[in-house]
Amino acid sequence: MKHTYRDSGSLRGSGQWGTRHEGGRYESRDSDYSKKNGNRKSAADRDRNHGSARTRKNGYRDLKRQDAEETEENPNRLEGKNAVLEAFRSGRSVDKVYLQENLHDGMIMTIAREARKAGTIISYVPKEKLNLMSETGSHQGVIAVVASYPYAEVSDILKIAKDKGEKPFLFLLDGIEDPHNLGAIIRTANLAGAHGVIITKHRAVGLTATVAKASAGAINYTPVAKVTNLAAEIDALKEKGMWFVCADMGGTPMYDLDLTGPIGIVIGNEGEGVSRLVREKCDYTASIPMKGDIDSLNASVAAGVLAYEVVRQRRGV
């Protein structure tokens, strides 16, 4: 059963940072023309070379613009092999690591291995991009992005609910990659009275500055925990009495479900939805009634709709 509440057009961070095109040199097939004019270039040749230069210029301009976006989104960065490797070995949370493509260096390969073990997103990019991103001028082929905000523990989130005398109300995000979606969900969680958000370490965005901005400040009040295995975390929370619901077009209409107890709303990846294993762990599969001409919702919008159905039912409206 495929999750259809997705935002297939909103994904970012695909690794495409601009294309550099090289124009070919014009060679006339007319030998008499070539002999007569020597190295003279035709109008078509000049236009082609001018277009190639313009493309290269625009490509580097795109690099600079995207570098500015990286700087805005990722203010906490580490540069250099030793700094990044020690960050992984010390257990520091690293959200993403940029590695220079085609660089087969022993330490770079070690960093890549540590990143995979930690579930960190790896992006292989050209040296030019790293040069533009670098603040030290000595990146050595690697730049890492660390979390802009600290992560909470799942136990901290449950304690908040207990201290308030409320039934736990959580969001669990299965591989959300768009920082704007994550920020919007954190904002919704705060406004709907949820006690916290749980995200995954693997193939998911972390708490970057863009996430904080999209949350409109809610990130300062709503704790976010990061776990390695979401399915296992659901099992652990079930033992504490929690129930879980995920969105799917083939599910039971959300109005017909009892969402008044200790509940966790599971929202899937923008493109693939909730993974099969996580979906099988959920107690309910909820469908959101829709009357329009399309059959999908943005991940953060689906989260908001389900969240306020929980709020409605809890208030007995």
Structural features:
six-stranded parallel β-sheet; 10 strands; 317 residues; alpha/beta; 41% helix; disordered N terminus; four-stranded mixed β-sheet; Alpha/beta knot
Write a brief caption for the model:
With 317 residues, the chain is an alpha/beta fold.
Query: Number of DSSP helices?
Result: 11
Mind telling me the CATH class of the domain at 154-315?
A: Alpha Beta
Query: Alpha-carbon distance between the termini?
Result: 31 Å
CATH architecture of the domain at 154-315: 3-Layer(aba) Sandwich
DSSP, total strands: 10
CATH superfamily of the domain at 154-315: SPOUT methyltransferase, trefoil knot domain
Shape: elongated
What is the C-alpha radius of gyration, as a whole number of Å? Answer: 25 Å
Regarding quaternary structure, what we see is single chain
Q: Beta-strand percentage?
A: 15-25%
* Helix and strand sequence: HHEHEHEHEHEHEHEHEEHEH
Helical percentage: 40-55%
Average of per-residue pLDDT values: 79
Main sheet summary: 6 strands, parallel
Q: How do the strands line up in the largest sheet?
A: 7-6-5-9-8-10
Low-confidence stretches: 1-74
CATH topology of the domain at 154-315: Alpha/beta knot
Structure classification? alpha/beta
